[in-house]
Amino acid sequence: MDVKTTLRDVQAHIKWLKDEKERIKGNDRITGDELVLIDDLPSLSRKTQQPHLDDVLGAKRLQQLEMEVAAAKDRLPRELPALVESNGSGYYEKTDVHIAFVGPVRRANELERICHTHLFENVSGFLEITETEKLDFLLISAALVEEETTTFHHMGTPLSHSRHWLEKLIIQARRKEVPVVFETTLDTNHFDRFSSLAAKADYIFTSNEERLNDYMEEAGHERVFVIRPGIDPIRFNPIGMYAGRHETALVTNAFPVHRFMNDLTMLAEGVRAANKPLLVLRERHEAFLSEAPQELHDALVLADETEAEQLKRASDWILHVNEVKGSPTMTETSIYEAQARGNLVITNYNVAVNNDFPNAFIATSALDAKGILEMFESKDERYEHQLLGVRNIFSNHTMYDRFSEMLFALGIDKKVRRHVLVIGRGDTAKLEAQFERQSYPYKRFVAETDLTEADLLSVDYVTVFDSRHMYLDYYVEDLINAFKYTDSSFVTKPAAGQVEHDFVDCYTDVALTVFKAADVSIDHLTGEETLSGNGYVIDRFERLDGTDELVENEPGAYKLSMIVPIYNNGRYLYNKCFSSLRRSSMFDEMEIWLVDDGSTDSETASYIERLVRKYPNVYTYAFNDGGSGSASRPRNKGVELATTKFIAFLDPDNEAVNDGYAELFRIMEDDSLDLAVGSMLKLASREAMIELNDLEPDSVKILDDPRAYLLEHNFKVQSIQTMVIRKSFLDANHLAQVIGAVGQDSLFFQEMFLRAERVALVDLTIHDYYAAVAGSTVNTITKKYFDKCVIRETARAKAFAREGVLDAYRDSRFEYFFEMWYLVFLRRSRPEDFNDNVEKLYTIVEQYRPLELTRPLVKQFVELHEAGQQSELKRLYFDAYL
């Protein structure tokens, strides 16, 4: 019986009660810091305390604990691959910046490699440093009590001695004119712990964009910035990733998962449904039962720190749920680390993951997760996708990138720029074209005939492009990235059958190798001399045979035409849309039309070309004129080009789920149907299922009068990406989408329902709609957006008049839509555009005259505009929402 533990917990509550009585007696207001202290009080609940007081229950819990720990130890695989350590970084070097640091020891160790980092134990120690060093700033990094810190261990406890002395430290830093910087990645659950401390800093860096205004308000200044996680390339890298991998999905969340535990169990259910091995990293302590959900206890594995890292490196999949969904910047650090190792990531929805890592897999159901885990038909296909994460991390998300961003915000430019010389050997015109397409930005081309030794002195790295090979867009970038996690003299591509992602002593082809310029001469590049030792070999991708030519795929006998409208969103096309189509059971029976509306970035063209090369059922068409301004033109063109009886649409930044198109196609084999419609899951700061009325659960409802259904439900629409449509129906009714309009698909849906004879409503989610994608048309509110709205509404008014339903639309839908859509978007327009946008919205109203307005906000809007009271309009419809 452990009475002492219960007594200690009770005494903590008694002390708090005494302090609280004193506060009330002094009529003092409770502070945020004091609220945090309440949260830190130990629980006195029966569930928590009874094991301390009941010997029988305590013994039962102990037996249960011993069995759980023993089973978790037994599940640890006996043969884990040895960790291959990095030998350093040849790309990065210590920045000439001096900082004093307080925070986690792990962060101090990272910073010591990035810049000159000075540690101290107390305020006096800090003052001693200022006497001998010119400090650029004092950095305070938020830490919880569980973490080992350099000093001031209880900085996360308000009213503690650590907090008291930290505040004195900040005062002394100001006296010494040393800027104070505060950084935190703990804003999800611990904002209140640190906000009062952060407010005393000169600069604040948070990983959660949603906290910017909170910090600005508390600090009284606007020097508050968002900073994402950055990985340590020495600790987290793909070295050795090609050997010893197995298909295990490893759960790496720390328990308890405070939010979205259901997401975790749902993803795990999908892993099991796919018959993939599932392991769940258990908490390392052996004194308490695991707080993992009970459904996962049969997969718990207990590992020390080294074993856990070995297990992560040996697993193809990392399953890790985010506890924040709506933040556009905050992602679990484990997701960054997993990609750096070369793991595939499967997770729940998170805005930042979707925007920053389209290569990571977001599953919204167990069925969706199962499809993701089953999608790769070969080890090579899986391996190539894993490398997308490696590239993304090492090109954009190392701790050096983050530190450079922090310095830039402080007015210090120390961004690392390493320059590459590319030497053209053979057909220089052809090679120079490949050089121009290289994604790596700091590069220079020279023909081999013009090369001099002086050229090698002005660059950091050098390589040869030879006409025997074709170099794809990320060839140089991938090779250069390897210098970030190794200190190598050369990085090369493998010969056939050679080991990949490991250290090597030699290379087989100078034209497949990047050299450290300081370690080679022209003789090494011509092959007269050979550099040996201290090399690294990456993967075999991003190059083709030099004679390879891109040719159009031959027509085939397909069953469904999938039309994908594209404009400057190649990464999403490749990683989101197309990957999801690959998971369809009828992928090989689809002809997929990638119709480019005039993309202006070369990356999108490159991704389209890759897909054409890899898949015989992919066809393309490009307008090459800078774009029409909406998805209508490429969709219409796709319908025109389609050769099958059935049409489906999917946007590049959305995903097909649940094998939905295959199910809709099966239903459409009923010749009497014009189209079949499912549902859509909208993913933004909140998730919302968008579905039509009167669905029959897990069934199909047939509409024999779609026109009456549309009118009965007030013209409610569904995404046209939830449909499979009979092509002959579109052709016979001359139905097409309005070019240059935004939201044109809603009008297209309404026109189809007005013309269709029979429609099937299916209770199945067909696609996920990522509504918070950066740069998406409906997320970018400019004057052009309202111009496109006018185009749509002009077309709608004419179409509804032609169909004889204009009066019904005016009476049942127009005002509601105007208020809930247009007036809301008006608030999000730029101040300088407000008056122009008001004029455009009034033009929309004019399309529906005669009109008797009944909704107060719409009526007021029209009356104020007609009275010329623009300033009052702006005050009510714009300024009031700032």
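That was protein one. Protein two is written in the same sequence-then-structure order:
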Amino acid sequence: VLFRPGRMDRCLRARFKYRHGSTSDPRTEKPEDNLSNNRQMEVAPMKARHLAMFFIFVLAFALPVKGSKTGIVQGVVEGPGGTALATAEISLTSKAGGEPLVTQSDDEGEFIFSNVPPGEYTLQAKLPGFQDGQLSVAVGSTAVPHLRVKLKVAEVSEKVTVSASAAPVLLAEENNNAFQLSGRVLMNMPSKDGDPLAIPSLFLDSSMVGAGGAKIIVDGVEVDNADLPASSIKDVVVNRNPFSAEFGRPGKGRLEITTKKGVHGRYRGNALVIYRTSDLYARNAFATSKPYEERKLVEGQADGPVPFLESKSATFFVSARYRNFDDETVINALTATGPMISNLGTPVDATTLLGRFDMHINKLHKVTLFYRFKDKSQDNVLANNYDLPEHATNAFNHTNEFRMQETGNLSANVLNQIRLGYKDETDTTSSVVSNQPSILVLGAFSSGGAQVNQAVTERMADLEDVASVSRGMHLFRFGVGVKPRFFHAAEASNFGGTFTFSSLTDFENNTPFLFTQNTGNPTTSFSWTENYTFFQDDIHLRRNLALLVGIRQEFQSSMSYSQNLCPRAAFAYSLGDGHTVIRGGIGVFYDREQAAMIEQSRLYNGISILETVIPNPTYPNPFGPTANGLVLQNSGYPSTYLPNSTVTVTQTLPSVTQIQPNLRAPYLINGSVLAERKMGRGDNYVTLELATVRGVDLFRMRDINAPFPGTTVRPNPNFLNINQFESSASSRAYSASLSYRGQWRKLQIMGKYTLARALDSASTFTSLPANNYDANADWARTDYDRRQQLNVVGVYALPKGFISSFVFNAWSGLPYNITTGTDDNHDTVANDRLPGVWRNSGRGPGYLNLDLRLSRKYRLARRDKAPTVEWAVDAFNALNHVNYQNFIGTMTSPFFDPLQFLGSANAAKPPRQLQISVRASF
């Protein structure tokens, strides 16, 4: 059977529905004696017992299971000229009698029936305006070939009667609080710069995304990013099958994207132009003059059959996007001469291309090839709004990615998909000004060069094999994957040195509290291998009771610990008439070691790069006669203060970065229970969910050589700072949410209200605690802790063919940290807090936003498939509500109010903006 990538889950869910009569579808670690040694990046073999476990799972399929073997019937509905027909009603009726299975063709005309018992069947397709199509189908021990149902245009109108269907058969994985947005809906939603992931990302849960951010799954394959043209996306789903063993993150921590494929029989295409200009913007709350902005985006797409390969049903799909943004950002700084408010141009130029080729090798196997290209440059990037123009950086990303998938049916009830991929990606960041030291005045301004000069190249291969077997009341799904990753990094940041001042007064008095500078060899290469195995059984115990059990094992060769077993379980129980369903589940989800951790430990090891840290230095020459007796070793790389590269001296107190020897992978324990209720006719669902997430062994950084409390004495007098990456942080999150998905007359709407609380002991894997001897004292609200969130999106069909849509957000404020701005405990980090003040004790204001869209499509001829032109106007932040951000809680900052003990914002989200777009389709 031929499956589109991304459809395997839906196919397997459908199997049970037919089979059972449905008609619907810690903590302190001593430093090692030799801190100069790096961990060896070896590819450690998987332990034999884990391989044995996996093969036991596979052998389980050979055991007899009660119930006959079943088959799969699928195909495509086409009209005249091979046009794909969507929303056609497809029925499959046994000639021996019984209730038919009914489904509907999708946007590409495809349909599928699964778990069909052996026998003779009649397949019928109906669509208003067309004559009925009918085929005879035989389901037996061999796979059913791919079917094509051709419909002719009807000469007379027909009356169609739709009968009520039986209560659906439950599957534990089919939760109705999943948010799925089709590409068609996304095109009709207000979307800034046509970003297809902006709206789905609203329904992610920050407590579940992990150290590397949300996981993105494109056509079943995990990728690092998905900068895809909007026209290439068929649908985006959040929180589908949240406890699936197939994926490494929970449902609310991943975005699942399905890309479009070409259609048979005709050629299609569209072109989109999006334009925005500051002439149509409201005033920025902090700018003295309106920042100039002009954004131009052009996107095109074409697809159809491949000439000379019609017999193989070969199709192509190509989509490209070009972005040219001439933007300005507002600088809001307080310098020694007074306030500085100005606008800085931040141009962006980006090109993205996606190509896809689908071909049927035969009636049972299909090959799909993907290619993705990306070039993106961005100039004058500022890390903070109080950075001066010379402190900006330029960034560039170049990506080439190729993937191949072979999908087929090995027998009547066995699906298999092989995925092979390769990616080459380079990220570079460089300072606009490179010959000046960086000057940081905490919470006031940053000037001089940004001292950022880095380039990282990653080459990655990916091989996966995922199979599914349907036997009786069991739906087995299992797979294995291996992903070798190779990195080359050049990190020459801070080679010019950085002075840090606690306050403007200290800056005026030339008294910095810290100077840092790096010298040495800034390059390193390393690699690791990631692999996984998983097994999952979806068990249909009764019509109203289903169970999902699974286990996943993940291994990363850069970490010696390999016992990363992830059990998963979920259930679904239907009450009464089947309109009320109780669901629950629990699972363990492991995270991975980040490339930045390995890179820093290999570079800042005291050999490759010598990191000089001088507390209370002289200024402007930190290596003057009163520089605490510290001198710098120069290894031939550029230095602001030692221009003679032949000088070689020693440093008495080096600083290094290392990784905890027994580092473990962090993991989340996620559990939830929910009640969902079907409301009225159609797909209208209300869901109430209670969820909890516990983070264990989360990554953080800690200085294990910090001075003993109340002293300046360090445990190891041979080093200054020994910053160590550890898996010793933790987190907790609790939430109650109420969501709705459905249609009320002409209004399609999805909404979710969440009441939540999230706590943790480290913000990121590079966060240092205020007290390195009591890291748990940082236990407090997370950086993303919003007590309440309301997100609602909707589309409404207006008269005369107009379509309106909206996105509404109302959120509680985020916390911010309040610190003294001084290095009170002499650990060279100014993140100290007053006694009794906990981390993230500041509370920012709420967020309110309303985006609107109005569009109208015109058909250029009276025939159905005639070219169309559509215009649209989007209004972002239509209420022009000022949403403040970047609250500064540094007590020595002029932005901090000591009387009210409150920080203030020095930036805001964009004001009201208008966007115009035109799309032509053929």
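The longest strand covers residues 722-744. Keep this in mind for the problem set.
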